[in-house]
Amino acid sequence: MRHVVLGAMLALACLSTLPVRAAGAVRESFELRVPVAPAPFAVEGRDLLVYEVHLTNFSRQPLAPRAVEVLDAASGVVLERFEGPRLRSRLAPIAPAGDAADPASLPPGARRVLYLELAVPPGTAPAALRHRIGYAEAGGEGAETFVVEGAVTAIRARAAALGPPLRGGPWAAVYGPEWERGHRRVFYAAEGRATLPGRLAIDWFRLDDAGRLAPDGAAAPQQAWGYGEDVLAVADATVVATRDDYPEAGADGPPAKRALADAAGNHVVLRLDDGRHVFYEHLAPGSVRVDPGERVAAGAVLGALGSTGDSRRAHLHFHVADSPSPLGGEGLPFELARFQLLGRLAAIEALGTAGWEPLEPGAGALRQRERPAPNVVLAFPAGTAEAGAPAQP
């Protein structure tokens, strides 16, 4: 009975505090749209849903979102609420706006993207989500708040876990969902529709035990610890695209002007049997060992880690998408079958210049069927299970 009462109290606590729109009241406001339905993936004991809601102002006055609620579409229970700084940090224009633009409001005809990361207990993601936006006409804190609901999206099934893209370690799994120019928030409209290929991309940097990327005084990408490391197929797959002729970046990084099509540098794209596409970018010149149309097994060597294309330090860019196009696909979630968590970077600004923080003694370090958390340091144990196979301790 105690658990029933606590459950009821939690359900009441999650009820919306946004006003309910009066019956018959009709206002022009936002179009709400979720372009890519999320799928759950595990990160350190939680399931995450990472996706975006696009808000476009179709009214004739500036509108200011005040609060956003994410609801279970079936029960109406509020799963998460964003307001104040938590909302403002996730609401951004398609491209960086000028200093005069107010990021908290949308002029008529403007679009903002709401970047959401929703955490739920393992295995509890609902079948679908609905979104409720509380907003006011821009220009004053005392303005009346109105409500619009929409952007219903189904939750997709969890995909099979992948094997390791690299061997050994330590490797830093570098990404940050809040970074303005990180992969998570960089749209492309190169093929007739806006896509977010790097929605869930990870950049892999090899470290030494002192947290350095290369020996002291090293400047060239070829001197980095990770340079030349084998890049591995994460599952049985078919090679659909390769490039192997892009020159290495110099000590000062890539040239200031570079064609958009060259951003990936040398690369390999695999098509998995479940239809997902896996991207390995910035590979070393002349290192690619496979050809389009070739069938590869999990663990096969595809090429070598380098620093080509849009790369200033030797690393592997890795992401999964729904298309073989580097700029025209939508980034998809993925989990890794098995890795050994070693520690965390204290601050991303110190990458390569300061030591990383090891796990506390006794902390559980073996992770299975998870995606690495942002900026952790890990290793891939020898004999890591192949994608989709049960990992053995």
Describe this structure in words.
Helix content is 4%, strand content 35%. The radius of gyration is 23 Å and the shape is globular. The strands form 4 sheets. Strands 10, 11, 13, 14, 15, 16, 18, 19, 20, 21, 22 and 23 form a 12-stranded antiparallel β-sheet that branches. Strands 1, 2, 3, 6 and 7 form a 5-stranded antiparallel β-sheet that branches. It has a 4-stranded antiparallel β-sheet with strand order 5-4-8-9. The chain has 393 residues and is mainly β. The N terminus and C terminus are likely disordered. The chain starts with a helix and ends in a 13-residue tail after the last strand. It contains 2 helices and 23 strands. It has 2 domains: 129 residues, Immunoglobulin-like (Sandwich); 213 residues, Glucose Permease (Domain IIA), CATH 2.70.70. Its EC number is 3.4.-.-. InterPro entries: Cell_wall_metabolism_enzyme, Dup_hybrid_motif, M23ase_b-sheet_dom. This is M23 family metallopeptidase. Keywords: Hydrolase, Signal. GO terms for molecular function: hydrolase activity.
